[in-house]
Amino acid sequence: MEEKEKKKHRAKHSGPKAEKKRKRYLNDLGIGDEENARKRNPKAFTVQSAVRMARTFHRTQDLKTKKHHIPVVDRTPLEPPPVVVVVVGPPKVGKSTVIKCLIKNFTRQKLVEIRGPVTIVSGKKRRLTIIECGCDINTMIDLAKVADLVLMLIDASFGFEMETFEFLNICQVHGFPKIMGVLTHLDTFKNNKQLKKTKKKLKHRFWTEVYPGAKLFYLSGMVHGEYQKQEIHNLGRFISVMKFRPLTWQTSHPYVLADRMEELTNPEDVRINPKCDRKISLYGYLRGAHLKNKSQIHMPGVGDFTVSDVSFLPDPCALPEQQKKRSLNEKEKLVYAPLSGVGGIVYDKDAVYIDLGGSHAHEKEEEEARPNQELVQSLISTHSAIDVKMASSKVSLFMDSTPLGSEDVGQEFVMPKEERQVDLKSGRVRRKAVFEDDEKENDDAASDEEDDQEDEEEAVSEHGSDGDDENDAEEESERMLLWEGMAGRRAKRLKTEVPQEEAVNELPAFADSDDDLEVSSEEEGETAPEDSEMEEDEEEEEEEGDVQRTCEDESSVSEFEAANKRAESKQCDMDSEHTETKPQISVHSPKRKAVLTTDSGNCTAEEASESEDENSSLEEGDDEGESHGELEADETNRNGFQQSKAKKADSVRHTKVKTLDTEDDDVENLLREEEEYEEKIDLSADTTGALKWKEDLTQKAAEAFLRQQRSTPNLRKLVYGTAVEDEDQESEGADDELGGLFRVSRPDQASKQKANALDCSKFLVEKPQDWDLEEVMSSIRDCFVTGKWEDDKDAAKLLEEDEELYGDFEDLETGVVHKGKAAAGGEQSGSEEEEEEDEKMSKPEPEEEEKKKERMDKKRKLKEMFDAEYDEGDATYFDDLKEEMHKQAQLNRAEFEDQDDETRVQYEGFRPGMYVRIEIENVPCEFVLNFDPHYPIILGGLGNSEGNVGYVQLRLKKHRWYKKILKTRDPLILSLGWRRFQTIPMFYIEDHNGRQRLLKYTPQHMHCGAAFWGPITPQGTGFLAVQSVSGTTPDFRIAATGVVLDLDKSITIVKKLKLTGFPFKIFKNTCFIKGMFNSQLEVAKFEGAAIRSVSGIRGQIKKALRAPVGAFRATFEDKLLMSDIVFVRTWYPVSIPMFYNPVTSLLKPAGEKGSWSGMKTTGQLRYERGIKLKQNKDSLYKPIVREKRHFNKLHIPKALQKALPFKNKPKNLEKKGKTPKDQWRPAVIREPHEKKISALLSALSTVNNYKIKKAKVKHREQLKEYLKVKQKEDEQKFKRQKEAKKKVYRILGQREKKRQKSSLKGSSKGEKNM
Amino acid sequence: AAGEAQCLSYTGCNFLRQRLVLATLSGRPLKIRKIRAKEEDPGLRDFEASFIRLIDKVTNGSRIEINQTGTTLYYQPGLLYGGSLEHDCSPSRGIGYYLESLLCLAPFMKHPLKIVLRGVTNDQVDPSVDVLKATALPLLKKFGIDGESLEIKINRRGMPPKGGGEILFSCPVRKVLQPVQFTDPGKIKRIRGTAYSVRVSPQMANRMVESARGILNKFLPDIYIYTDHMKGVNSGKSPGFGMCLTAETINGTILSAELASNPQGQGAAVLPEELGQNCAKLLLEEVYRGGCVDSTNQSLALLLMTLGQRDVSKVLLGPLSPYTIEFLRHLRSFFQIMFKIETKTTEEEHMGGEKVLMTCVGIGFCNLSKTIR
User: Fold this and answer.
1) Nearest to A373 by CA among A349, A320, A364, A229
2) Residue A293 gets which letter from DSSP?
3) For residue B265, what pLDDT band results from cuts at 50, 70 and 90?
4) Domain map of chain B by residue range?
5) How do strand A178-184 and strand A149-155 relate by DSSP bridges?
6) What phi and psi values does residue A1171 have, to the nearest 5 degrees?
7) Residue B245 and residue B190 in contact, taking contact as beta carbons nearer than 8 Å
8) Nearest residue, CB atoms, B187 vs list A720, A783, A1019
9) Segment holding B147, helix H or strand E
10) I need a surface site. Which of A785, A1062, A1119, B176 has the fewest CB within 10 A?
């Protein structure tokens, strides 16, 4: 009730408000903030010291450049793969709980058991793959290599454990991923202070290991066996916004963290031999770099394999399609963990498995895993049965073809599959593009081999409906278009040439060449009864080819007519018609644009060798046309040609044409227009038919794009064939079989002539054009600077434009004022405002628009000029580099963006972010039998020749926490690249002269070199070494770390070898030595070598002696003794044991995967078996027995004695004799009285002595006392004197000063007076 | 286990060089069978043997096995070593035959390559050393293989059939190559060339120059053709003459053409005038074909693009030569790389023939031989 108790208002002294107030106050006073101070007192802010300024400048620059990293091209794909989050920590720290909580946080689902990686969608643009890392060092090593983010769990109640540090060190070696610490078990602390202290201590230790300021999370307590929701949410937030730096190894190698494994082995094989090698398929997101099919991979813990097949699958855990909303809805929060059996649904390429979990698991699950159910629902409703979806989906391969349904496709890709065909006669191999439906037909055909006729009919009936002949039609039209282009160009040139006379030879010549290609070609055994439809096609093409030839020959005016005749009469030879009419059109309409063809040079590959033959017969002026003819032949060949003409059926042909007419609109249009042209009948053609088309210019232009599209695959097809090429020789055996009974005898597949032709890179000009002719010359006129330029580069045009811009100028020298041309717009001089006003006033007419555009252009140009002038200096080298990288990254992204995935995959390989299925063959059966999803399966792609082995040299340092030093030739387990393997390293150190000298042990605190035989890994790759991967030790397990320096196929490590010898004859400085070498030859090898005796006398080997064998003459700098030992120091190359043993930990049975042990060290073996080392007796230590030394008497010659001074002369003192008895002194024996007296005397003297002593002490003390007093007095006296002196001196000084002053005055006065 | 890279197998001796080169670079073993198996004189020829010997010289640890008749060759590549070397090339092929392959390998050695090649410098079959010097070296520079030591020096000129020429080729080593975007050839600004003559009248060169100029002057005034008459010991063992021409564009593209006289004692004598004219026409043909890389170096450019970093490289070429097409196929089987091939028509009418735009993503090749300190 009483208001007295109310708190008084306390003004704020800090914070933004207080700051503001203070500022205001100061402003009121007139002393404002810093800026004002600058204004107020400018002098205080001027440059005080130039040096200092320079220094500060340098410093800032240094700091700035320190922040720079070498820019790298950003190669991350647009849709990146899920981020790999590895949860690591010692056992019982709460790893699985954290994972479960995180999954629940992101997806609202509760996973009961987690096995293998779990992929979840964590946000609109991020997915996570969370995987738990056990304490097995193999697992830690593998996962450290693929981790993007590491959640390092630390038991706060216990502190750091060895595993944590080991993992950190592993990470450091293999590129450092982001690391976040998570402290758990914090609820065990009852004392708050202790908790705080522990947190702080752990934090700082963590910081020293990772980096200062590394993020450390605290998970305080558990609620119902889970961490607190808010804390997990925060952790999740951090994870989902985290940015990652690219790690070198990861970005340069493709890798897959497999989340699913299927066995594909034929069950029969397994039944026959349960231990047979298996074929498996692994699934997972591809990360890192692009993966190519058939490339080499390494599976850590299993071994090296070659990918037998890769395919990409629809993303099982796709990011939501871009929607403009803030958060994900429940449907988009996907979780994908096939190994954990999430949802109980497993997809395969061609099947969906539903895991029912036993007959009664049903009811239980429904209650327990409610959220799961939801997921299942969503999966079933949305994605369910991918194969069904695929079955319903349709793909159209070509523009106008009907979409292909899955019934047409047995394969995953709707991609032309390659079929190897071998021509019966020549044995040439063709790579036929077989679409799946074709193949089906083939199969049919194969099944009822007995009746070709029937087959044919079947094919005919199929014609009407099947989408397959659309393809054919498409192909034809494609070819046709191709021809149009070619012929067009040909016509351009042929105007000058009339090579008509060759026409006669021409046909046989072609037939000849045809023989080359076709007669020689031969059908593959199994596909021999080819579907007749194909045959028809082929025949037609052949005919077309014939016609082609003729038309080429007579491509003149007469030809023109003939062609038209044929055009009228012929119905089926459409293609040829097009090509024939084409020249005319181009003659008529020289303005025609964009002639699109494959180039002549592009098609001569196969025929390169044959062309010579042809050339001899085909004396055609135009080599272009000729090679096109070859192309045509090639094409037909490609389609799996057969020679049998007898089976020709006209009806087939007609239906074919019909379908063509209906399907191919373009063609039809063209056909109709054709009639406007003069039509004549060509007698040479064997069939008749009306084909009408006319060249429509606008249409032509519209189709330019289409044609481009079509001609491209043609060229591609020419180079690469249609599909992936098999390895020729591997499938050879299968090819030879014909019906399993007969073997076709035929020449080699590749025509002999080609295989053994001249190997030359020159691209010879078969038929040079006549460069004297004006037309020919003009065809390259614009390739020269003297020719016409493009508009944007033409100097004259540019100048003109510039003139418009900078028209007005005054020549200062001459004083002439140049007026700029009134630019197209007219009013140029008006100010901008005026112009704008004009704009506003006048209606936006096209003219006005144009003007405006012009102005904008001008402005832009001016701005560019300005920028170029003033911004140039600002851009540093670093900026330029960055810009360049950025550009490259953009190009990388843009280049294949518009293509569909299947084509893209062929060019780029499988790009990271795709969900791929990788098939691998010849996997050891143990991998499948002992499969344990808790252990990560990683497929690491290997670069070129990274699958090879060689000598690898490393820079190595023993880890400072490892207790022992490492011994040369002891097996060591290295983790290098993707691999873990055991090998035998040799340690060496490099001497100053570059010699690599073997070391027996690693130095304690120094780097040394190491060389081993093992997999080739790029230089600069980090590695770590452990001595054993099995079991656990309390000690730190990482023995050494380092980096790869060099790769080679030979090494130059040497060790010292001393050869000893003994002199057997000694002259003055020359000496004969034996026992060092065994032959004269050996000596000869060492002539001139430096030798040394143990006593240090140096010498040289001179020449071998005849006897004894291996003895030689040597010279020394001094005379040797016979007892000397002579040695020569040599270097002996060391060989490295070729021991490379991959750690196959994943092949161990479940539960023993952490117990892989490889080769043991000899030390271990000895210890285990109790074998003592047999020591060399000589190197044992024995008690040293030293004999007593006897020295002889010093003998000085008499002559010397004489010369010596007396004191040095030996004195010949003779010993005194014994004292005679009479000279002995007698003993005194006192009387009792005397004894008393003497005792008393001694007592008295003792007393006296004591007294004297006492007195002495006293006196000394007195003296001390006195001295002290005296000193004091002296000091005082001294002080007094000093003061007195001071006084005196001061007086004296004053007096002196006075005197001086007076004297000065006096003098000045004196001067004045003077 | 490691060391089991798939062995590639081929038949026939054609494209032997590119196969060996690609095998060396990719580290994959290679087997070639049926080398001239059906011919009267089966097996490898001396120039091929010489080439294999050269490959053996520049590598370390490669295993080469040839069967008794020489019809089967097994090659397991080692690591490229380099250093100072000498090699006597077989006179049945030009030095260009060997040099072309060395150009592919030299940037990836352990030690910078410095090799003296002896043999036929200019012949009618292979690209001559002059042409490679004028075209291949600028091409290498575009990929970042640069430096003072990159050079080809012609010490002596040797004509077939006896040869006697000598060149020095040196090349620095690189760890990685730069990606290139080389799509605009630009317009030809000058034509240079060399007319050489050995052991014939020095007037021959001048006659060739005159006639060639006569043709080229219709297109461009900036033409200079050097005459190079070598004498004495520098002139090799056989007489002959020839000419090579290069056209350089404003963007640094260099197109080339060359022609040499018939070897002594083979074929009819060639008039220098005629040769000059034909050579000039060949150059015009080359210009007609166009592209940013001339036809002899197409495969080199494509190889270096393939071996680049994992970035997109583009290059515009003229029509692909048969050799290049085969090379592309080999690139796919050795490196699993496929080029995106697009035909480009020139919009202008007077810009020569059609061009091909080749695009690829590099494989991220790095020089495994180079030592780091």
Assistant:
1) A364
2) T
3) confident
4) 1-79, 188-289, 293-361
5) parallel
6) -90, 125
7) no
8) A783
9) none
10) A1119
Exposure string over A344-378, b if 16+ CB within 10 A, otherwise e? bbbbbbeebeeeeeeeeeeeebeeebebbebbbeb
Q: Which residues are within 8 A (CB) of B157 and not within 5 positions of it... i.e. 6 or more apart?
A: B121, B122, B165, B196, B198, B228, B230, B234, B235, B236
Tens-digit pLDDT profile for residues A733-776: 334 444 444 444 444 444 444 777 888 888 888 777 888 888 88
In CATH, the number for domain B188-289 is: 3.30.360.20
Asked if the domains at B1-79 and B188-289 fall in one CATH topology, the answer is no
Question: In which element (H, E) is residue A501 found?
Answer: none
Give the position of tokens 């001497």: A991
Interface test with A, best of B174, B340, B344, B366 (most A CBs within 10 A): B340
Supply A495's token pair. 């105007």
The reported pLDDT for the residue numbered A722 is: 55
C-alpha–C-alpha distance, residues A771 and B176, integer Å? 43
Q: Which tokens go with A1057?
A: 């070898």
For residue A788, what is the nearest residue in chain B, using CA coordinates? Answer: B350
Q: What is the Cα–Cα distance from A225 to A208, expressed in whole angstroms?
A: 32
Nearest CA in chain B to A717: B341
Q: Is A1125 or A456 the better-scoring residue by pLDDT?
A: A1125
Tokens 């290295």, residue located: A974
| Cβ-defined contact of A892 to B311 (cutoff 8 Å) | yes
CATH 3.30.110 fits B1-79, yes or no: yes
ipTM: 0.93
A33: left (phi > 0), else alpha (psi -120 to 50), else beta? beta
- Cβ atoms B98, B51 nearer than 8 A: yes
Residue A683 has what pLDDT?
Answer: 36
**With contacts defined as CB-CB under 8 Å, which chain B residues touch A781?**
219, 350
Residues A640, A423: Cα–Cα separation, whole Å: 8
Tokens of A968: 């040369």
pLDDT digits (tens, 9 = 90+) for B290-344: 899 999 999 999 999 999 999 999 999 999 999 999 999 999 999 989 999 988 8
Distance separating alpha carbons of residues A728 and B232, to the nearest angstrom = 52
Closest by CA position to B191, among listed B164, B172, B215, B159: B215
Could you say which residues from 999 to 1058 on chain A have a Cβ atom under 8 Å away from some Cβ of chain B?
Answer: 1014-1016, 1018-1020, 1045-1050
* Cβ-based neighbours of B261, under 8 Å, separated by 6 or more: B159, B240, B241, B242, B269, B270, B272, B275
- Name the nearest CA neighbour of B158 among B239, B56, B58: B239
- Residue B126 has its nearest CB partner, among A306, A760, A782, at A760
Distance CA(A907)–CA(B310), nearest Å, equals: 12
pLDDT for residue A412 is more than 50:
no
According to the model, what pLDDT value does residue A322 have? Answer: 67
Q: Cα-atom radius of gyration of chain B, to the nearest Å? A: 20
d(CA B151, CA A627): 38
| Encoded tokens for A171 | 């990470």
C-alpha–C-alpha distance, residues A986 and A742, integer Å: 58
Q: Is the peptide bond before A1015 cis (omega within 30 degrees of 0)?
A: no
**Alpha-carbon torsion B124, B129, B135, B139, what sign?**
positive
Cα–Cα distance for residue pair B244/B286, rounded to 1 Å: 12
A948 CB within 8 Å of a chain B CB:
yes
Rounded to the nearest angstrom, the minimum Cα separation between B220 and chain A is: 7
Give the one of A594, A892, A906 whose C-beta lies nearest to B345's C-beta.
A594
Q: Are A386 and A915 in contact (CB under 8 A)?
A: no
Question: By the 8 A CB rule, do B130 and B94 touch?
Answer: no
